[in-house]
Amino acid sequence: MRTGVIVVGAGPVGLLLAGELRLGGAQVTVYDKLTAPSGESRALGFNRRAAETLDQRGLLPRLGEFRWGPMGHFGGVRFDLGMLDEDQSGVLGLSQARTEAALAGWLADLGVPVRRGYELTDLRETPSGVVVTLDGPQGVAEDTADYVVGCDGPQSTVRRLAGIDAPGWEPTRGMYTAEITGVKLRPRPIGERLPGGNMVVCTPLGGEGRYRVVVHDTSLPPRPDPNALTFKEVADAWQRLTGESIHSAQPQWLWACGNSAALATSYRRGRVFLAGDAAHEIPPLAAWGLSAGLQDAANLGWKLAATLKGWAPADLLDTYHAERHPVGQQLIRNAQAAAKIYLGDADMDPIRSVLAELLEHKDTAEHVAGIVSGLGIRYDMGPGDHPLLGKRMPPDHELPDGTRIASLLHSGRGVLINQSANGWSDRIDVVTANPGLGLDAVLIRPDGYVAWTAPGSSIGLDEALSRWFGARDRVGALR
After folding, report:
1. What angle do CA 429, 434, 435 make, to 5 degrees?
2. Per-residue pLDDT averaged across 166-195, rounded?
């Protein structure tokens, strides 16, 4: 067997990446060691930019009903998102299992195979591809692809077999998580701080008596064994901190982890790539890791597909690490800062008070919201002074005929508004309309980021098109 890309890991990041690749015309196969989806709700939503990414592919309706969070917080210090010029609210209370199911349905519609019960045991790169060895339902098997992407979590087998280092930070404290039914609890959706640096979180999941509870207890081991955790341990810890008994509840799943963090030194080695938690492990915090992972997938998918289709510039794949690795560095820094504020004891109260005062100011709130929402990300698109250059094109923005920008990106192709692209029309869609937002014309990459503007860019349109979409098709240019 041979395919264009093998994706290892059928979590949300791997599933979105596979769909992005297929939209770009690549053949892709997903392998996962689990025989069925876990059904766990580890992440309860994602940030604004991750939601926009799904919106750009028309995927939000597949998620069913969910709610947006009108209040922002950094490390538990709340601020009003309503003061900002843009809506930066994230998706709340959405089980990761529902996100995975929606993406799996999308892949089924696209005809992408997801093969479960296959555990990666070996990986070797050849001059023309990558050969993987898998332990599957019928025994040991091999598959070959042009590229392999590891979306297989913080203990990534792909990363280890590829020889990519991921130096990190040792855990200092542990946490227990459980999804339970059959009780009635007082919600504490962003956490209730308790003496001694302890905290409990209780998030209603919809339906009477269904909750996700989290225990941050300084007495827990920094490396708790998730396979050895019992619900009695979770319930005992909850009662010790709150005085409430949840021992009569029915646990749906349990999880234990520490607050370790790690960052891969490179998101690429040859024909092997990393995305999501395989590239950046952060302490569990407001689904930041999942949100960043979905953005990894959106950034990498179209670039890999373009390479396989033969029109990508020579260095296009290198821009994946160049753009996303700095985001990973900032992600870990920000998560560690937020965790210290979030879980610190009373000694952190002066810092919380100062931060709360700062967040009353719109400029400060805008900056912090951009960290949390992902809307503050800006990629290097060359010299220029338009404020949108390198940032995402607002997907809710409408053209004069009412067309939303998000709908223009459903195909997974680049979009050029109000200019001609003779010679690149096989790779981008051209829309004749006034783009607004202080623009006469704009070039948008498939991942929604603005690659060129007029006015504002100091390079010409042809240079920008060549930079991101390869050489002009001379045959097409002469038609």
Report:
1. 70
2. 93
